[in-house]
C-alpha cells in the first residue's frame, strides 16, 4: 500500500534538485565577477594570449551557465522530469488507482448515509406535520371549550384564551435552532 507521504517524498526529492540549481545563481555570478577581475588583471599584467584565452573560455562558460539558470523554468522542468521518471510514475499511478478504489467504496457508504439522511428528513417532516395537525386539533378543541364556557358564563383563564393553559404544558420545539444544527452538520452556514 502506497501512501501520499511516499509519493510526495519522491516528488520533493526531484523538486530539491531544481531548487538547488536555481540557488546556484549567486555563486555563478560571483564566479563571473572573479573571472572578469582575473581577466582584467591578466590584461593589465600583459599575460600571454594563452592565459587570456583560458580565462575568457571559463568566463564564457560561466556566463552560459548563468543564462541557463536564469532562464530555467523550475516548475516546468520539474513537471517534465517527474513525467519522465518511470519509478515515480508507477508509484503515482498505483497510489491513484488505490485511492480511486477507496473512493468507490466510500461512495457506496456515502450513498447509504445519504439515504439514511433522506429517510430521517422524511420521518422528521411527517412527524412535524402530525405534530402541527395535533396542535391544530387541540386549538380547535380548546376554542370549543372556551366558546361553551363563555356561553354559560363560566370562568375563563386570566389570559382570556383557554388554549394558553395547555400551551404552557406542551413541549417547545425550537425549529430554527434545530434547522441551524442540521445546516451546520451539513457544512453550511446557519441561517439564524
Give a structural overview:
- The longest helix is centred in the middle third of the chain and has 66 residues, at 86-151.
- This protein has 2 domains: 4-84, no CATH class; 107-185.
- Helix 1 (4-23) crosses helix 4 (74-84) and helix 2 runs antiparallel to helix 3.
- By secondary structure, it is mostly helical.
- It has 7 helices and no strands.
Integer tally of domains: 2
User: Span between N and C termini?
Assistant: 46 Å
Q: Mean pLDDT, as a whole number?
A: 85
User: How much β-strand is present in the residues?
Assistant: under 5%
DSSP helical segment count: 7
- The structure class reads mainly alpha
Percent helix, as a range, is over 70%
Q: Which overall shape is indicated by the principal axes computed on the Cα atoms?
A: elongated
Short description:
The protein has 192 residues and is mainly α.
Q: Could you name the key traits of this structure?
A:
192 residues, mainly alpha, 2 domains, 7 helices
Amino acid at each position: 500500500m502506497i501512501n501520499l507521504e511516499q509519493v510526495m517524498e519522491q516528488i520533493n526529492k526531484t523538486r530539491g534538485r531544481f531548487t538547488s540549481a536555481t540557488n546556484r545563481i549567486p555563486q555563478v555570478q560571483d564566479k563571473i565577477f572573479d573571472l572578469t577581475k582575473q581577466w582584467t588583471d591578466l590584461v593589465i599584467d600583459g599575460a600571454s594570449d594563452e592565459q587570456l584565452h583560458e580565462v575568457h573560455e571559463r568566463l564564457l562558460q560561466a556566463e552560459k551557465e548563468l543564462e541557463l539558470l536564469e532562464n530555467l523554468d523550475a516548475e516546468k522542468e520539474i513537471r517534465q522530469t517527474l513525467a519522465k521518471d518511470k519509478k515515480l510514475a508507477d508509484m503515482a499511478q498505483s497510489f491513484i488507482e488505490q485511492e480511486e478504489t477507496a473512493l468507490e467504496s466510500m461512495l457506496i457508504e456515502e450513498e447509504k448515509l445519504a439515504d439514511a439522511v433522506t429517510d430521517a428528513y422524511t420521518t422528521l417532516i411527517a412527524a412535524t406535520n402530525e405534530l402541527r395537525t395535533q396542535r391544530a386539533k387541540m386549538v380547535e378543541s380548546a376554542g370549543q371549550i372556551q366558546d361553551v364556557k363563555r356561553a354559560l358564563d363560566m370562568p375563563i383563564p386570566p389570559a382570556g384564551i383557554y388554549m394558553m393553559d395547555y400551551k404552557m404544558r406542551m413541549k417547545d420545539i425550537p425549529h430554527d435552532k434545530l434547522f441551524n444544527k442540521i445546516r451546520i452538520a451539513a457544512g453550511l452556514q446557519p441561517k439564524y
